[in-house]
Prior knowledge:
Strands 1, 2, 3, 4, 5, 8 and 9 form a seven-stranded antiparallel sheet that branches. Strands 6-7 form a two-stranded antiparallel sheet. 24% of the residues lie in helices and 36% in strands. By secondary structure, it is of the alpha+beta class. The relative contact order is 0.21.
Amino acid sequence: MGGPPGEVTPPADEAPAPAKKGLKTLIGKSWIVVAGFIVAAAATFALVRWAGTGEQPKLSVAKQWNEAIQKLGFEPVYPPVEDIQVGDVFAMISDDAVSDSATDEPFAGRSIKLLHLDLTPEIEEAYRAVYQFPATNVRPEHDGQIWPQANSTESLFKPPATRTTLPLVLFPRFTITNVKRASGSASAMSQLLSGGFGADASSTETVEVRFSATETYGVPAVPAELRLLDFCEDDATKGFCSQQGLRKQLSILIGKRIDDKVKDRKTGVERPRFSVELALVSRVFLARSIQTSMGEDGSTRGNVGVNRQAVLPAAAAEAAPAAAGASGDGKPQPPAPTPQAGPNDAPGGAIAFERRATSNVLLPDTLLPRPVVVGFKSVRLRPVE
Length: 385
């Protein structure tokens, strides 16, 4: 009806085949754009998560302390204690092949004190060869005045018969700041969907340490090494110098895990998960006043917006030439109605979010009645596997 015999006229409410084809092509292209938008948004989200999720920071005081003190070049002791001395012998977990827990753990959590060797003769012998200069005079009252030296009653380069004060050591006040920032955005533009995602995140870790009234004492490496070798040759103690002996002692700390094995990714050969060592403390660092502050601050901000264009005005425009005269009377068909926008003529919606978390730990400046050990150096022995 309305056309030559044998020709079927499509119903008025059915789009012609060319129009349908154009519509399907546009929908396909639109969803490709949408898929790309999702992938880009996911990548942005991962990057922002790396920088900081804005969740409550999990501040490990021991880890922060260890990382800060290691910058000074010696083994950190957390918490600082008074009863570590030159001559102490420790069984230690020096490495963990599965994680960084061996370095993150405080010293007390990855070592066990076996016994103490009396190194008093070695200490006295070492300091009989060390000069002790006169005490410093009071600072001049005015700038530009000469700061006089104190005179010695004997030769400056004559070691004292008996040392009555600990050698001094100076640690600078230092701050370690670790900052991570990331930001990103993704957008999708199509006739079906227009949307955008944007986010940025940051996290800051700060550790500030100040030691006051610091002192040290110790013995040279050679005398310490000789005492450690003697320890490992003595029938009464040589059992501690083997892998089996050290692991037996360290099992008191972590149980049967001390014997765990892991496979080397390259060779496939099994090896012990934990590396163990024997350590003889050869020098300690002491402080009579400690001031430390540690803080973490994390934040995440972002926004998501979607603007859905509900019925394809571009599709209708693309299909219009093919649709012209499709009804058989040669008259162009009226364009499809355009859906009405939402409130304020802004179809779709938008979401904005922001999260922030802060954590702080403070050890105020306190004068201690006696010095405590904040770190040490040692000579070590790693038994053959």
